């Protein structure tokens, strides 16, 4: 009787172990991410160019993940370009890995520099949009107060 209980216990344990196994390997593909900027000046003059240092912070690394970046000029008028003077087109996305001098030595923290050249005497507001190939999207708003409008207030 004791032997039957031991064998039944072993069989029940094996059944639970084998029944709980799944031969499918689950790989997380879509990781959360954010776009941040380093310190930026508050004001901008007409025809001035500002360096915008951006960092894509990823909570994990999936090798097949791809990112695209774009911008929307919300207020004012200007141009955005990278270190090789390749211009981004307003309201169009382009692959992040096409940005000149993208530092991707750490796959979870990619740093790159864009420049904004102001073409207006008004305040400038830019919305950067970054999206991955899993349809996740993040935005970063950057604004500069026009020095000409600041002078008028005084």
Describe it for me?
The chain is α+β, with helices and mostly antiparallel strands and 154 residues long. The protein has one domain (35-153): Sandwich (Immunoglobulin-like). Helix content is 16%, strand content 44%. The chain is built from 2 helices and 11 strands; from the N terminus they run αβββββββββββα. A hairpin with a 4-residue loop joins strand 5 and strand 6 (87-88). The longest helix has 18 residues, at 2-19. The protein starts with a helix and ends with a helix. The mean pLDDT is 89.
Tell me the layout of helices and strands.
Elements: H1 2-19, E1 33-37, E2 43-44, E3 49-58, E4 67-75, E5 78-82, E6 87-88, E7 94-95, E8 103-106, E9 109-118, E10 124-132, E11 137-146, H2 147-153
Task: Give a quick rundown of the structure.
With 154 residues, the chain is of the alpha+beta class. The protein has one domain: Immunoglobulin-like (Sandwich).
